[in-house]
Amino acid sequence: MNRDDISVRMGFVLLPQFTMGAFAAFADLLGLLDAQTDTVGPCAWEVVADTLIPVRSASGIQVVPTDLLGDPLRFDYVVLVGGPLAPAAEAGPALAAWLRQAARGGRHLVGLCNAVYPLARAGVLAGHRLCVGGDQYRDFTDRFPAIAPERIVTERPAVFDRRRITCAGGAAVTDVAVRILRRHLPEADVRRALRCLQFEADGAPSGQIQPPPPGIPADSPPAVRRAALVIEQYAGQIPGLDDLAGRLGLSARQLQRLFRQHLDTTPQAYARGVRLRQAAWMLRHTDKTIAAIASDCGFADAAHMGRAFRAIHGMAPGAWRRANEKNTV
User: Fold this and answer.
1) CA nearest to 197, candidates 31, 19, 12
2) Is 277 helix (H, G, I), strand (E, B) or coil?
3) Do the beta carbons of residue 207 and residue 225 sit within 8 Å?
4) Which of 181, 153, 182, 178 has the alpha carbon at shortest distance from 168?
5) Which residues pair with 62 in a beta bridge?
6) What is the pLDDT of residues 170-224, one digit of tens each?
7) Backbone φ, ψ for residue 260 (5° rounding)
8) Is the dihedral of CA 184, 186, 187, 193 positive or negative?
9) 37-59 confidence digits (pLDDT tens)
10) What are the start-end ranges of the E strands in the chain?
11) What pTM, to 2 d.p., does this model score?
12) What is the DSSP letter of 218?
């Protein structure tokens, strides 16, 4: 790893229950790039951890780290590979301190899947935009209320912001790996490796949009899927129709027409349904007052939420909460 002709050095940290596919998206590309040369390849990489105990992936496959954490400045990129679900426990203080050391040293920090959590916990995402999976947004904002909602992106699968790169996972990981490697390696080498993996030359066919929320057809127009993701993210402070349409590069009339055509509803009605779903979740899973829930979910007051809630559920929020207490987790 001390060869001067190595173009890029990467240190991978595999978090408990990490996604094997996300790790493989990087490892396969790096391995093929090395295989294209007769000597030591252009990429140096290893798996590091605070112990050499094998790390178990979400699929059950275990990977043994090749070295201890050591000095993070020996890497150009530190890549944390997380899992598909919100982490059950926080990463340890040793990893957090190591990440802060890497950040102070100007290293690029990459968080795949739920690895955005330990990056946020270590405080190395301050002032950066970051990508969070849409299904983890509520949990993430609950854990990190100091991170401004406008810095959290859920409608796109990856965010590059200076020396911080975050990705929600899936096929977009390959696209992230390709974009990083193209910074350091000849384009012809990267294209050759992609062809070996049966990918198009531009990387993974991940598109620019995260999977849509439940109830939104996957074949809906991109504008509809993006609008639904934005509404889900900002349930408590959904932008007005004109602002939402402008964010998508459409007029309000065009957005209304798309929702009518593909969802048989309006953006306003869809947003109201999102608020009510969030309110029901909070009634069941939190001990917040109904007034506080109404405020969090963007209703004018508890009475406003109560009227909308009764129209859907046939009972007042308080009665619904008592009826569902046995299901609280």
Assistant:
1) 31
2) helix
3) no
4) 153
5) 56
6) 889 999 999 999 999 888 888 888 888 877 655 544 445 677 777 888 788 888 9
7) -60, -45
8) negative
9) 554 568 899 999 999 999 999 99
10) 8-14, 43-49, 55-56, 62-63, 67-68, 77-81, 108-112, 130-131, 152-153, 158-161, 164-167
11) 0.71
12) T
Give how far Cα 168 sits from Cα of 130, 182, 243, Å. Answer: 10, 21, 25
| Residue 199, SS3 per DSSP | coil
- C-alpha pair distances (Å), 175 with each of 57, 60, 83, 239, 305: 22, 25, 18, 30, 42
Q: Please tell me the total number of residues recorded for the chain in this structure.
A: 329
The HSE-up count of residue 66 (CA atoms within 13 Å, CB side) is: 7
Q: Please state, in angstroms and rounded to a whole number, the distance separating the CA atoms of residues 34 and 42.
A: 6
Category of 204 on φ-ψ map: left (φ > 0), alpha (ψ -120 to 50) or beta: beta
DSSP 124: T
In three-state secondary structure terms, 265 is coil
Distance between CA atoms of residues 42 and 1, nearest Å: 10
d(CA 300, CA 34): 59
Q: Looking at this protein, which amino acid is placed at residue 291? A: A
* 8 Å CB contact between 267 and 256: yes
- Binned at pLDDT 50, 70 and 90, residue 328 comes out as very low
Alpha helices in 197-250 (DSSP H): 222-233, 241-247
| Whole-angstrom distance, CA of residue 93 vs CA of residue 160 | 26
Question: Helices 187-196 and 20-35 meet at what angle, rounded to 10?
Answer: 120
Give long-range contacts, CB 8 A cutoff, 24+ apart: 71-75.
72/11, 72/98, 72/99, 72/101, 72/102, 72/105, 72/107, 73/101, 73/102, 73/105, 73/107, 74/1, 74/9, 74/11, 75/9, 75/10, 75/11, 75/102, 75/107
Rounded to 5 degrees, φ, ψ at 154 are -120, -10
Instruction: Check if the beta carbon of residue 89 is closer than 8 Å to that of residue 115.
Output: no
CB atoms within 10 A of CB 5: 8
